[in-house]
Amino acid sequence: MLGVKLPSGEKLQLYMSRDKVEEILSSYEYIKRRNIYDYGFMDLRYTDDLLTFIYCREDSGATFFNGLGIGSTDYEKYGFEYNEGKKYTVINYKKAGGKYEQIEDYDSSLEFKEGIQVYLEISEEDKSVTTIAVHDIYCGNRMEFDE
Q1: Scanning 58, 88, 109, 122, which has the fewest C-beta atoms within 10 Å of its C-beta?
Q2: Contacts of 41 (CB under 8 A, 6+ apart)
Q3: SS3 at position 142
Q4: CB of 21 within 8 A of CB of 53?
Q5: What is the average pLDDT across 77-88?
Q6: Alpha-carbon distances of 67 from 38, 50, 62, 126, 137, rounded to whole Å
Q7: Taking the model in full, what pTM does it have?
Q8: From CA 134, how far away is CA 60, in angstroms rounded?
């Protein structure tokens, strides 16, 4: 879940270089708002010229590399839990031995590239995924993104 696949087949992955992302998305227009690159269907942010925040809205049709994505209702098989009181669910990962492993709690002490958070917004009506996001925990916690 380190990245997303757009309906066009393009793939974006955390820590991909800004140059590579711009090459992949060269046919799309965006609006830059401070440190957010808003493509209309998706927002991106960078830290040290690396992609550290991907937020895909309902109209993007995006999926994570494992197939979980916008419109999915089978998110529980991926470890996410639906909570009646919330419209979202998250899973946190910590890098261990070169791989990211799920951790129970959000760890704000993690450094750059040591942890990621995967976020889903869930529709109350049909319990389907309406938003998917993935970001570096360090950058998200400290709001450390390139301007």
Answers
A1: 109
A2: 56, 57, 59, 60, 61, 62
A3: helix
A4: no
A5: 88
A6: 23, 24, 9, 19, 22
A7: 0.92
A8: 15
- Beta strands in 57-142, from DSSP E residues, in sequence order: 63-64, 88-96, 99-103, 115-122, 129-136
- Contact assessment for residue 54 and residue 24, using Cβ atoms and an 8 Å cutoff: no
Mind listing the pLDDT tens digit for each residue in 90-135?
999 999 999 999 998 888 899 999 999 999 999 999 999 999 999 9
- Which secondary-structure segment (H or E) carries 32? strand 31-33
Residue with tokens 């209702």: 73
**Alpha-carbon gap, residue 102 to 41, rounded angstroms:** 28
Q: What is the DSSP letter of 85?
A: T
Element (DSSP H or E) covering residue 137 = helix 137-142
Identity of residue 134: V
Q: How many Å apart are CA 99 and CA 89, to the nearest integer? A: 22
